[in-house]
Hints:
Two copies of one chain form a homodimer.
Chain A: E1 2-4, H1 7-19, E2 24-29, H2 35-47, E3 50-55, H3 75-84, E4 89-91, H4 95-98, E5 105-109, H5 116-120, H6 124-139, E6 143-147, H7 151-163, E7 169-173, H8 193-199, H9 201-214, H10 219-233, E8 237-246, E9 258-266, E10 271-279, H11 283-286
Parallel strand pairs in A: 1-4, 2-3, 2-6, 3-4, 6-7
Antiparallel strand pairs in A: 8-9, 9-10
Helix pairs in contact in A: 6-7, 9-10
Amino acid sequence: MNIVTTIAEVKQRTEEARNQGKTIGFVPTMGFLHEGHASLMKRARQECDFVVVSIFVNPLQFGPNEDFERYPRDEQRDRALAQDMGVDLLFCPTVEEMYPRASSVTVNVHKRVDVLCGKSRVGHFDGVATVLVKLFNIVGAHRVYFGSKDAQQAAVVQGLIEDFNIPVTLALCETVREQDGLAKSSRNVYLSQQERDQASLLYATLTQAATRLQAGENVQTIAAMVEAEIRNQTSGTLDYFEILSYPSLEQNINHDERVILAIAVQFSKARLIDNLIVSRQDQKEEGIHHV
Amino acid sequence: MNIVTTIAEVKQRTEEARNQGKTIGFVPTMGFLHEGHASLMKRARQECDFVVVSIFVNPLQFGPNEDFERYPRDEQRDRALAQDMGVDLLFCPTVEEMYPRASSVTVNVHKRVDVLCGKSRVGHFDGVATVLVKLFNIVGAHRVYFGSKDAQQAAVVQGLIEDFNIPVTLALCETVREQDGLAKSSRNVYLSQQERDQASLLYATLTQAATRLQAGENVQTIAAMVEAEIRNQTSGTLDYFEILSYPSLEQNINHDERVILAIAVQFSKARLIDNLIVSRQDQKEEGIHHV
């Protein structure tokens, strides 16, 4: 595995790979890698000839009161994990390398952002889209891998790719969970032991909500159940629970073939998110499943 | 020359060319081609193996009170000219092909836009940058050609390419002029005979202004001279005359190696722009010259 820190090196090595007719798979991350990331790398490794992983904690996607400075970092462990997963090229740029000056241009995201995390994280997806446009141009990947845990991010990126005609295919991968159902996240380390125990309730509640939705229960009743569960069973505060069409993220859940049930809970030092994406038309037959 | 109207066809043909190891030159236009465009195609033809020209009147870069609907179009003549210039692929998409739905993302341009044309054309360069990001992704060109008549556009695009890491090189080409100095423009057809006669004064005045700048005269005095010239010698209205650093477009003209003297004059049915870009350090030695 090659580890590089400059854009020029990435361009050179990916150009070599392309010239050899290799397909390039790309996993953009903010580091502090866990099994969720590992599953993305594994799939990229299976599907592509040359696998690139980037580790970059992107300041543009953090709000002024968010956790950019204290976002967890462990470069050494990240390198070992990427190496284990058979990654070919690990790109770890500095902020100065990615943003050598105040940028003259940014991407503005107009759709799929006024719901879920976008409501409280104003400008967050502009920052995500901006750094991804840069990374797509630098890496020139054929396929890019995202986890469905960040389902809104994946929906926004799908729109970005389509509307900017970016020559890359998005592969959406299933959320990887702890044994008790808690979605893997770099931010789980911030949980106290008590909060960690309570946190499994996010997945349990989502599963229950999806079952009720399948049974034809209305969205308001389900939302009230979720709110009561989080209030009564955890020390956290419900930031949102929403049922929307996916990937359009419209209130009209008949807008797409799929529906997302998504939740965010603020604990003392960590805000956790989770979701289930279920097929609308086959709900009854297939039951709940991730896509 | 192949003429195509769909994004899929452009991608297919440019991919073929890339796979054959050809360098791709790209000239994005809004059509109604004149000798200015021809000079861009000629240079692309000289420097690249495969030349792509796009003709697309981009609604996103026109303001609500601008001339999108009545922007001049002559597809047949454009095709003949592109054919004559040895263009390989002419891309003439419809608005629906480029924007099949309201876009979820646009590019926001923050720098180099609050001066010159950007002052009165709010959002114009956002529209330019957005369509260019799309076209760059569709065409995958190695080199893109712009005329220095639209100097602010070229400066904005240079920033876009650098800050988004777009893998394309911008080639800036000299403004092509009529015999009396009037810069070639698709909008010149809107001039009355009297206005057409007066319009040569833009270039003459710019030349005079550059000479005075070289001689050490201060910017305010030069601006007053230009204003008086346009007021007294034409029926048009001076929209702006500015002397700025280039390509940063800063008021401090010592910011870059080059300086731009730029003018815009509103005639009854056409707003004309022109500029001179002169080298700052070599002014005395080389005199006025385009870059």
